[in-house]
Design brief:
Blueprint (H helix, E strand, L loop, with lengths): L4 H26 L1 H10 L5 H21 L3 H27 L16 H27 L10
Helix pairs in contact: 1-3, 1-5, 2-3, 3-4, 4-5
């Protein structure tokens, strides 16, 4: 691999990650009622909590997605994206385990059923892996001169 390829790959991965989360968040923010129903169908939260989550989560996804782009917010944003992706994966696994015939809700309304949930699970795990890899690289960066250790 060429010496300058890693920073370019990281930039592309950050932009791709930002694009996925901003796009998914925007679709959900445009139709919070449908997203609230999708969250409620997982049978993990009462409807009031699902509705509150449907109003809050899309904006968190968009802000965290954009936060991956800027160095000052990248570490926090990557932590959020890893966490959200793993929570999404756990919710999908729960739905699969309980044989729920539901749509993921990740990109608004979409296909229903176990095959769609398996695809969504793979996507969530891939997003967690990419976010986690970028987070790991971010944590390994040398500190600037004069910076105090955490």
């Amino acid at each position: 691999m060429a010496r300058g390829a890693t920073p370019m790959i990281e930039r592309v991965a950050r932009v791709a990650l930002a694009t996925v989360f901003v796009f998914a968040g925007a679709l959900k923010a445009l139709d919070p009622a449908t997203f609230a129903q999708a969250v409620f169908h997982y049978r993990l939260l009462p409807y009031a909590a699902a509705a509150a989550l449907a109003l809050y989560l899309p904006w968190l996804e968009m802000v965290a997605g954009l936060g991956v782009i800027w160095a000052a917010t990248r570490l926090g944003a990557l932590n959020l994206l890893v966490g959200m992706s793993l929570v999404f994966a756990a919710a999908i696994l729960s739905a699969l385990w309980r044989h729920l015939d539901i749509a993921c809700g990740c990109f608004g309304s979409g296909p229903v059923g176990s095959t769609a949930l398996i695809v969504s699970l793979i996507r969530s795990l891939a997003l967690a892996l990419v976010s986690g890899g970028l987070l790991w690289r971010e944590l390994r960066l040398p500190s600037p001169p004069g910076a105090s250790p955490p």
